[in-house]
Amino acid sequence: xxxxxxxxxxxxxxxxxxxxxxxxxxxxxxAPEEKTESGGxxxxxxxxLICFADDEEDAAQLNEMLASLxxxxxxxxxxxxxxxxxxxxxxxVSSQCWMPFGHQRQICCEQVExxxxxxxxxxxxxxxxxxxxxxxxRVIVLRSARIVRAGALRKVLALGDKIVVDSSRLGAPGxxxxxxxxxxxxxxxxxxxxRLTPIRALLAQLLENRQARDIVIEYAGKEAGPEVRYLQxxxxxxxxxxxxxxxxxxxxxxxxxxxxxxATVVRVDKDLAVRLCPGGAExxxxxxxxxxxxxxxxxxxxxxxxxxxxVHDRVFERALNHITA
Amino acid sequence: MSVESPLNDPLRFHRKTPPCVVVIFGAxxxxxxxKLMPALYRLAYEGRLAPGFAVxxxxxxxxxxxxxxxxxxxxxxxxxxxxPFDEDLWRSFAxxxxxxxxxxxxxxxYEQISKSLGEIEKGHETAGNVLFYLSTQPSQYAEIAEGLGxxxxxxGTGWRRIIIEKPFGHDLSSARDLNTRIQAHFHEExxxxxxxxxxxxxxxxxxxxxxxxxxxxxxxxxxxxxHVQITxxxxxxxxxxxxYYQEAGALRDMIQNHLLQVxxxxxxxxxxxxxxxxxxxxxxxxxRSVRILKPEEVADNAVAGQYGPGRxxxxxxxxxxxxxxxxxxxTTNTYAAVTVLVENWRWAGVPFxxxxxxxxxxxxxxxxxxxxxxxxxxxxxxxxxxxxxxxLLILRIQPEEGISLKFVSKRPGAGMTLxxxxxxxxxxxxxxxxxxxxxxxxxxDAIIGDATLYTRQDMVEAxxxxxxxxxxxxxxxxxxxxNYAAGTWGPAAADAMLARRGHVWRTP
Lengths: 325, 508
Hints:
By secondary structure, chain A is of the alpha/beta class. Chain A contains 11 helices and 14 strands. In chain A, strands 1, 2, 3, 4, 5, 6, 7 and 8 form an 8-stranded mixed sheet that branches. In chain A, strands 10-9-11-12-13-14 form a 6-stranded mixed sheet, covered by helices on one side.
């Protein structure tokens, strides 16, 4: 579909374009004489997903990731690409379609791509708000470092039921800013926290019937990254009687297998050591050395988990509050 | 992990299992290779099994632990679906695999099992929890339960449970006998009778659909529903299982267990809670409400069929009697259609038509709920041909799992011309994530101790009671088989059965 307009964009026009687009797609996929129940095209939408990205970011790669994500969370997808220039505002509509294996019906999600200069961010908010699908959750993914610095951020955030950030990304909001989102009442997710889910699940199982007293988290590097900070905060808030400490660049630092770098090791009372590496975790129980598979999480996998939780995540919020206190 | 654990994160963590040993009888069989072991490995892959989880495989074939591990490695690598096979994880998982050769009729085998369980409990910290899985010939079920009971293995320091594969008997009397023999050693709450249909995500979704939404339940009764059709069609024949199948038949193999359970899920009353016994009480109550046919009513309400030669997918296929291992004069039903009437206030007078068969035109399992037509026609019939069509709610179990609502809509343009349209919910489109296999769900439930999706003694007996008059009648009847060609929708008598009430089978 061609670009909508320059400089000023009417949301009504975009909605009309979307409607016309579906009529065309439907007609293309289903000849009128066909009256089978299968075949044709299914328009799927379970939420509005608004993704703010920098225009320098590889558009094809981002689109591929979001298209793949649509299969888990079919959405009205609004991608806002932000650039540094002046007074630029344009939009176009398209769709993401796929044919599930073994099925006869194509599934499609609609996509609106908005390109805007950072000084038009306030206008973007006024365009995106009416485009959101009614009665469904609205989730904002902030991938752009620019937006964190922008003055109109508050208007953008007001669009979403949930805000997802990744504090591991360069230029991403820090713990204080994420805490600010929580304080403002937003449901908030941080992909740095999401990365910990399989690790936390394993530790929860291993520690369930222990009276852990002394837990040490050894990590590579001088400064603990957000994941390590979250891990410490979670353990400390869940086990208030234990002392949970961090050791960076420790003498006990262990290597993972070839090319996997250094392990983060969680040592519990000197009789349990869980080595966390990119491919999985290893630990010993009795005479057995056991492994839990933990394939490195892609951004798509992390977003998939976060998009499935559109309620306040009290465990995350408790850990974040512990860090920011 | 317990729900109360301070480390639990119910929003994000999957259900975890307590430590245990699974003892599989029939460990060298197809079910273990194709379904059970891939399901257990997948649960390990997802981190759902407790550290130290162990399996003891038992069969007659002499094998060492390492031979067994090697066989299971190959089976899991071959039959694992939708998941990568991780060699490192397998090595970790395989440390918990053990094997004992033996004859289930030999009491020495049970002493061996007892000894192995003791050793594994110490090394793997399994807390004395044991799940016995009977994946053998059904004729060995009672013998194994008695062997376990006599060796004191039905009780222990932890919990003891036993999973029994279908069929639970071959008629009402044998089902009762089997239960009596098993219950001599295991309490009912220890017995998990598996019906893998109930483990299917989409069958479970029927309960979510009915009881999680407020708008359907008011319509879910005789006032608004005219009839219900349940179809489980297979597009293949007996696939080399002719010898087994001719002892069972479609009525025993599908309707007595899977499809009556599905029907019970569709028609049961809402349970007060979602606890295992509350849900099963309602299913059992519904099955007990099924009208038992009198001998003279069977002919009008049940149709048997057997496929003859035909063309399927452009290929000529042989009839059932020509299949390897099948008696050339076999009277086994490869197709069965039954009209079930439920005698309660909600469903009085609403027929539930259930059909299943081999070599039907397509593989499909669905429930079609036919609503009554609008009470008054306000459009001119020439303009509104679609208006006479009833509303239909289709619950698709497989493939293309989902729910569709059919209604009429005005065609765009001048005049009031109506056309039927479909509003679709596609399970895969809304939840792209992988659905666990039925065996993953059911094994996990049994280890956790949740029997909601397992059938209970009273449910088994009630469903046998419902089909017993049909079995009795058919056993003495001479059939003019084959009566449908492979690749067609079954015998004409099945159409006539519906036509008597003014209904027609839906073409899925």
